[in-house]
Write a structure and sequence with these properties.
Largest sheet of chain B: 5 strands, antiparallel
Distance between the termini of chain A: 101 Å
Helix content of chain A: 40-55%
Largest sheet of chain A: 6 strands, antiparallel
Radius of gyration of chain A: 36 Å
Structural class of chain B: alpha+beta
Oligomer: heterodimer
Shape of chain A: extended
Largest interface: A-B, 70 and 55 residues
Number of strands of chain B: 7
Distance between the termini of chain B: 46 Å
CATH class of chain B: Alpha Beta
Radius of gyration of chain B: 16 Å
CATH architecture of chain B: 2-Layer Sandwich
Order of helices and strands of chain B: EEHEEEHHHEEH
Number of strands of chain A: 11
Strand content of chain B: 25-35%
CATH topology of one domain in chain A: Leucine-rich Repeat Variant
CATH class of one domain in chain A: Mainly Alpha
Chain lengths: 807, 152
């Protein structure tokens, strides 16, 4: 015997334990299943209703799917209604049996009763699959012209679903839009706007065709905001007529007004009216103001209107209501590119939001803050972000660290500040700084010889303070190894003019501490690898500690970590007297990759002293023995002075150490190479530059490279290389590299593309060179060009002289 | 557009769930679990929006029930709250001072009302009067049928 839905719910609610509940449900499900199997017609809809309740509680109910289909096919309204409800709850558009219902829906669409039509349309609109949409599109189209608004609005929303689901028939309903937008019924109007929005989103090229409806939309909106509107009472919410329709129209106007000055002209007035007349004391009014501001900021609005929008935004931002502040920040994020000035004006408010108690607001504020950073405010903004890093929850820290690092890399005024800031980031959030960022830090340091001494001292003292931040320890250990000689030289002078005394013994003690207490237990082997590399490097930098180093290295020669063990064994071998004559060469400082030389020189170094007092850093003296000559630069980037058959590689494993593995010349120029830096900083005012005639630098196999050299006022030379492909097939993976003699500094920016389309010369690449002989020795370049043509890689070399005299 | 609507009691029980985008049953329940624990743990003082995956959850508490709407990145959060309120007012007028128990025992009716308000995640009717009118006419059709059955 079947119990009523109400009774079932009551008995489930009476259960005291989960087990009891499961038992009741299982029993009832068994009964329902039996009833289904016996094809019981009388109670089928009641059983499906019960099943729906059970389904909502999370129990499996798939066996009810077919019953829904049977109910829908019934002629009785109560059964149909439950059937359709079951259909939309128990099935979704990917359920296979759904296709079986298409015919029932089709029948119900032509039923005499509007509510039966309504049920069918609602089902199609909510779960209609691609096939169903396709099969029923014609019926939907007819129903959109029904005299009954109840049918029209539902049909229009079904049309919207069809447009979203089926590509080929998206234009089927275009002719109906006009009538929908002129409809007096708000439901139909709403549905019409939704349909039009979907159409425009699916295919923006319809913009032109539908542009003519802007006046209708404006009129509908004006009617609603004018007092004395006939339907006002029916649609009133908190004193505002149909906020839903208003917002929908505002959103549509936004689509039309974007990048169209004409369309914008038609809506300026009404937007101003909405922005001034809508009362912003309640959520309803604010919802409309929010939509309106978004529209104003997106279209080509006149300045007066824009000010109006900005003022509303400012008011939102200062609101005490968290919801309003949230949407204000969300809006700022979206208009950041439109109006940087507004953003900057609200900077302090935004930064305050970083300290809000609400995570939603903090998150929004943080996103806005990132986009606020520029050259002018990098220092103050970084300070704020570092403050925030101190208190942020762990979830935020990783992103925060990498965002700060990126901003610093992009906008830092000089190297010294950049290094200082990055060290701070690592001191505060060192466990969240990614490998990649640590590596970048090391490159920056390596490429700035003036600051070697400064950096290593600073890192040393920071590490003495705390060894808890992994990134700090890792880069610190690396720097101690590379530049330990600066630390123990005693030449560095502190702020009080006292020389800084660090003995080789102190350095080793510190490394010993790192070995004993690595910052993160699970990554100890990585830390130890770095320490061993630092130790071996210190052999030449602190010869007095030879024995201590050997002893420390011994700790690892039985390590269970294979890499670490191998490394320490190799290093111990290197300490043997056989290697006495070669050791210094092997353990020399790591050469800086070519691309970094370019990148580093483009930014001023900044003060290299340790807080005010200058140190003895004679430029060029330390580091990198001789720069490799022209040919080596391209051909043998990795080979060092080490003799052939060298058993232990001077540095293996460990990402930080393998800076070199990114073979300098074999990579396309680093994308982060700063574009203008060098020139701007030194020249200041743009002075007349001297243009030389274009010259063909390279021509072979259908590839032609033309140089357009230009001598800048400050003496540097900018060369624009234009790559022409005269073949009828594209060249892909195109990489262009250049090397210059020692007396020239070169920085290359990324090419504008990696593919040269056939018969074009669209791709260019800019290089800037500084000739330190002031043109006494002519500019020379060696080229290496690589690309793939017809699937075959091509590698070419070339040499370019013949620059005009004085270049 | 609204991706899904949920009604969750303070104890974390689902009172209504409606998806407008295809979502397998298993994922639905997983989502319900995740979303309700996120929202039930939020302090009442913070804002009514929560970023979740690529979407935004807009929720509001009415008595013992949380009404949650999941909308897309570019949708108007304030308007979503307004839609939720629209739904709540329709329920309130239909049941006459609606309470959680009404929605438990008449959960199907809550769905019927929702179906008159939203289709495919978009609002179809902004007049409460119209919604209630259509619902009551359909309820009348149900009764006629029941009576006919009893007589027959």
């Amino acid at each position: 015997m079947s119990i009523k839905l109400r009774e079932l719910i009551r008995s489930i609610r009476a259960c005291k334990t989960a087990a009891e509940e499961r038992a009741v449900v299982a029993r009832e499900c068994a009964l329902i299943r039996t009833a289904f199997k016996e094809d019981d017609n009388q109670f089928r809809h009641r059983n499906v209703a019960k099943l729906l309740f059970i389904h909502m509680m999370g129990y499996p109910t798939h066996f009810g799917q077919m019953e829904c289909l049977k109910l829908i096919a019934s002629s009785k309204f109560p059964e149909k209604r439950v059937g359709y409800l079951g259909l939309t709850q128990l099935l979704d558009e990917n359920t296979e049996v759904l296709m079986l219902v298409t015919n029932s829906i089709k029948n119900d669409m032509s039923n005499d009763n509007q509510y039966v039509n309504g049920l069918a349309l609602c089902a199609l609109g909510n779960i209609g699959s691609n096939e169903m949409c396709r099969a029923l599109a014609r019926e939907v189209e007819n129903m959109m012209a029904s005299p009954n608004p109840y049918i029209r609005k539902k049909a229009a929303l079904c049309a919207m679903r069809i447009v979203r689901k089926v590509d080929e028939i998206e234009d089927k309903f275009n002719s109906k839009i006009g009538n929908l937008l002129e409809d007096r019924n708000h439901g139909v109007l709403l549905a019409g706007c939704s349909l039009l929005t979907a159409l425009l989103e699916v295919n923006p090229s319809y913009m032109k065709e539908f542009r003519r409806y802007v006046p209708s939309l404006v009129r509908a909106l004006r009617n609603m905001v004018t007092s004395g509107y006939t339907n006002a009472a029916e649609y009133d919410i908190a004193g505002i007529t149909d906020p839903f329709l208003q917002a929908k129209i505002l959103r549509l106007l936004r689509l039309f007004g974007e990048r169209s000055a004409d369309a914008t002209d038609e809506m300026n007035d009404i937007l101003a009216q909405v922005a001034t007349n809508t009362e912003g004391t309640k959520n309803t009014g604010n919802a409309i103001l929010y939509e309106c501001v978004l529209t104003i900021m997106s279209i080509e609005a006149e300045s007066g209107l824009r000010v109006l929008g900005i003022n509303i935004l400012g008011r939102f931002l200062l609101s005490r209501d968290n919801n309003i502040r949230y949407v204000a920040l969300a809006t700022l994020q979206r208009v950041v590119n439109v109006d940087q000035q507004v953003m900057q004006r609200h900077r302090n408010t935004i930064i305050d939001c970083l300290k809000d108690a609400d995570i939603s607001i903090r998150k929004r504020a943080l996103d806005v803050t990132y986009s606020l950073v520029d050259e002018a405010n990098i220092k103050s903004m970084t300070k704020e972000l570092l403050n925030y890093l101190l208190v942020a929850e762990p979830d935020f820290k990783e992103e925060l660290c990498s965002k700060i690092c990126m901003a610093v890399e992009k906008f830092s005024p000089n190297r010294r500040w950049q290094i200082d800031t990055l060290i701070k980031v690592m001191c505060l959030g060192g466990n969240f700084v990614k490998e990649q960022q640590r590596e970048k830090f090391c490159r920056v340091v390596a490429a700035t010889p003036e600051l070697h001494s400064y950096t290593v001292i600073k890192l040393y003292f920071n590490m003495k303070e705390s060894l808890s931040q992994e990134a700090l320890v890792h880069v610190g250990v690396w720097c101690l190894g590379e530049f330990g000689d600066h630390l123990v030289s005693g030449k560095a002078v502190g702020p009080d003019s006292q020389p800084i005394h660090v003995t080789p013994g102190d350095v080793l003690d510190l490394l010993y501490d790192v070995v004993r207490k690595p910052p993160t237990g699970e990554k100890a082997p990585a830390t130890h690898c770095l320490v061993t590399a630092a130790l071996i490097k210190l052999v030449t930098r602190c010869p007095s500690e030879f024995e201590k180093i050997r002893k420390l290295l011994r700790r690892f020669d039985c390590s269970l970590h294979v890499d670490l063990q191998q490394r320490s064994c190799e290093f111990l071998e290197l300490l043997g007297s056989d290697w006495d004559s070669h050791r210094a060469g092997i353990l020399d400082r790591m050469p800086v990759p070519e691309k970094e030389i370019g990148g580093a020189e483009t930014r001023v170094v900044g003060d290299a002293s340790i807080d005010e007092v200058p140190t003895n850093t004679s430029k060029g003296k330390p580091g990198k023995s001789d720069l490799l000559d022209l040919n080596d630069l391209l051909d043998a980037p990795r080979e060092q002075q080490a003799p052939a058959n060298q058993a232990p590689p001077p540095s293996s494993g460990g990402d930080l150490l393998d800076l070199l593995d990114a073979a300098p010349a074999a990579n396309p120029p680093a994308p982060q190479a700063t574009p203008e830096g060098f020139l701007d900083i030194f020249s200041g005012t743009p002075a007349a530059s001297q243009e030389a005639p274009p010259m063909v630098a390279f021509e072979k196999n259908g590839l032609k490279v033309t140089f357009f050299p230009r001598k800048e006022a400050d003496g540097s030379v900018t060369v624009l290389a234009r790559f022409a492909n005269t073949l009828s097939v594209p060249m892909t993976n195109f990489v262009f590299e250049a090397a210059v003699p020692k007396y020239v500094t070169l920085s290359i920016q990324p090419a504008t593309g990696q593919v040269l389309p056939p018969q074009t010369d669209l791709v260019t690449q800019t290089m800037s060179c500084v000739n330190s002989t002031n043109g006494e020795k002519g500019l020379l370049m060696k080229l290496r060009i690589g690309y793939v043509c017809n699937g075959a890689p091509v590698q070419e070399m070339g040499q370019v002289g013949g620059f005009p005299p004085g270049f | 557009m609204i991706n899904f609507i949920l009604l969750i009691s303070r104890q974390g029980k689902t009172r209504l769930k409606k998806w407008f985008v295809p979502c397998p049953e298993r994922d639905q329940f997983r989502t319900i679990k995740e979303v309700s624990s996120l929202i039930l743990n939020r302090s009442p003082k913070v804002c009514n929006f929560l970023e979740w995956r690529d979407y935004k959850l807009c929720y509001k508490r009415y008595a013992s029930l949380f009404f949650i709407a999941c909308i897309e990145q570019n949708d108007n959060e304030l308007l979503a709250l307004e839609m939720v309120h629209h739904f709540v007012e329709c329920l309130d007028r239909y049941f006459g001072n609606v309470c959680e128990l009404d929605l438990i025992f008449n959960f199907h009716k809550a769905y019927y009302i929702l179906d008159e308000i939203l289709i495919s995640g978009e609002l179809q009717e902004s007049s409460k009067r119209a919604v209630l009118h259509h619902i009551s006419e359909q309820d009348a059709m149900m009764q006629e049928n029941e009576q006919a059955k009893r007589k027959g």
